[in-house]
Design a protein that fits this description.
Blueprint (H helix, E strand, L loop, with lengths): L2 E3 L7 E2 L3 H14 L6 E7 L2 E7 L3 E2 L1 E5 L9 E4 L7 E6 L3 E6 L4 E2 H14 L7 E4 L1
């Protein structure tokens, strides 16, 4: 069963279905402000999936969890020519800069995350690159 981590101080949430994922992300997104968007982590299919919430643009990054082969994480590519970075806060507290090139529309990012939770596979709907 997938597990959602959204805070270092609050308990993780079990996600028995993609509907529960949607409800949890909706609740957490409502808490975010544009000045402090958050990155949440979901653990499923032996992977850590991270997702930005709280802005119109987001990203998805997927990495094997506890990977002994050190395979790189893969992140979405929106506009490969975009410059700059956007600040997010990992688990609501750790300032993290995400390159603008990796941002995609938030509804698309959520759909990609849901597809991964259902299948354990990356969607070919967007381009992915190593982090």
């Amino acid at each position: 069963m997938p597990i959602l981590e959204w805070s270092e101080t609050q308990p993780r949430l079990d996600l028995p279905s993609t509907e529960e994922f949607d409800h949890a992300i909706d609740r957490l997104s409502a808490r975010c402000t544009e000045s402090r968007p958050t990155i949440v982590a979901v653990y499923a299919h032996g992977h850590q999936l991270i997702l930005g919430i709280g802005l119109p643009q987001s990203f998805v990054q997927v990495q094997q969890w506890d990977d002994s082969h050190n395979q790189p994480a893969l992140i979405t590519v929106g506009d490969a020519t975009a410059n700059g970075h956007v600040a997010f806060y990992f688990l609501g507290s750790h300032h993290t800069e995400i390159p603008q090139r990796n941002l995609i529309p938030t509804p698309t990012a959520r759909q990609l995350a849901k597809q991964f939770l259902e299948s354990g596979k990356l969607s070919p709907q967007v381009a992915w690159e190593p982090v």
